[in-house]
What we know:
The protein is built from eleven helices and ten strands. The chain has 368 residues and is α+β, with helices and mostly antiparallel strands. Strand 8 and strand 9 form a beta hairpin. It starts with a helix and ends in a 49-residue tail after the last helix.
Amino acid sequence: MAETKELMAAADFSVLDVVDHISKIRDLMKAVMVEGLHYGVIPGTDKPSLLQPGAQKLCLAFRIGDKNIELAEKDLGGSHREYRIRKQMIHLPSGTVLCETWGSCSTMESRYRWRRSGESVGDVPVSYWKISRDDLVAREDELVRIFGPGKYRLRKSEGPWKVERLSGKDERTENQDLADCYNTILQIADKRAYVRGTIKALAASDLFIHEQEDSDDDDEDGSAGARSQAAGAKTKMAEASTRQVLIERIARAVDGEENKKFFTDGERKTYSAKIKFGGPAGKPLPTGELEKFAEQIEAALAGRKAGSGSASLNAAAEAGWNEAPPIADPAPGVSPQPVSTEIKKSPTGSPLPTGGAKQPEQGKLDIF
Length: 368
């Protein structure tokens, strides 16, 4: 990220600097960020809504840190409370303060102020606890099977956990346990400031909006549909985590201090292109294929270290490129296998990207 450091510390940006900056954000979205986990899509809008995990990925990539400089607590009466946080977004390598931002949250917001009235219908059944906590829909279905149609929530009592059947949507009561929400609203205020600050620091309001928030754990009145969406988000989170691990494996194999001499710059460009555009219709390589690709590269590295000659991967042909990338000069002691020049079509029959992207830094696997 050497050029990023120079860009953030520069007094003035050129047009090419701004284009490169935006390109890096878009590349990161394609390679790492997952819809529903890192950003959301609000119907009727033309820009995604940045969520906290996505903001964290952007700050990691651009080496941005945050520092809280003010925490204000306001008593709203009736045990209600508001927190307001002001923070700075800082470019870590240079120490430059990029911007100041703020975020607030209070227990007067409807999700914290109100609780739907409920009727206790019994203890939480053992069968409920045996279902995976990640399978929220199955857990809700189990309550319906045992207690009949309706919407339910769990509540901790003096003894065992109880199941409550919720009444109609319009029948709600004031939350009598506001103190249980204080830590939550403090975290939400910090999260809102962080996401807003990330967009502001990166001048990315043309790419993201800050409107929709990822659902909070304390929202106990969610329907089965909302719970299903939450379960889907957790699945996407697991897949994103797996992809990140696989990408790091490939990067270590190709860019590791002891390994980089076994691969040429041309191969790095080819591998990067396959990860970014090797999936159907030029999309990123699917997770399953990415795992196989990581295993292939690791096997190639092992073969070269053992002195068994070239184990170069014909990544371009496997990705289905319309034309193969040029063969670079081999690294010392390495004789790359020629890349096939056979013309292949994409699964949809449309041409896949073969150029136009910024070339990776010398000696680096430019996955992002």
